Amino acid sequence: MPSYDFQCRECGERFDVRCAWQDKAQVRCPKCGGEELQEIFSGFTFLTAGGGGGGGCAPSSSGFS
Ligand SMILES: [Zn+2]
């Protein structure tokens, strides 16, 4: 079962919860019982655009005119 990191928006408590994905909506802050939780994605890397493009038929301007 995966665990999720949450941060409470009310008291700032940070904690992790192990629950099913569909149960995340029922998670409450263990400290203040707040429902306003922000999920923290740690170790999440965005794929940057670009890389591995082109090549092949670049026009070469070796001048014979
Ligand atoms: Zn809280």
Overview of the molecule:
0% of the residues lie in helices and 23% in strands. The chain has strands spanning 3-8, 14-18, 37-40. The mean pLDDT is 81. It has no helices and three strands. It is rod-shaped, with a radius of gyration of 24 Å. With 65 residues, it is an all-beta fold. It has a domain at 3-40. It has a three-stranded antiparallel beta sheet with strand order 2-1-3, with no helix packed on it. Residues 8, 10-11, 13, 29, 31-32, 34 line the site of zinc ion.
Largest sheet: 3 strands, antiparallel
Number of helices: 0
Name the ligand types.
Answer: zinc ion
- Give the DSSP E fraction (strand runs of 2 or more residues): 15-25%
What general outline do the C-alpha atoms trace?
rod-shaped
Strand adjacency order, main sheet: 2-1-3
List segments where confidence is low: pLDDT < 50 over at least 5 consecutive residues: none
Name the helicity range.
Answer: under 10%
Question: Distance N terminus to C terminus?
Answer: 69 Å
Radius of gyration: 24 Å
Structural class estimated from helices and strands? mainly beta
What is the string of SSEs from the N terminus onward? EEE
Mean pLDDT, nearest integer?
Answer: 81
How many beta-strand elements? 3
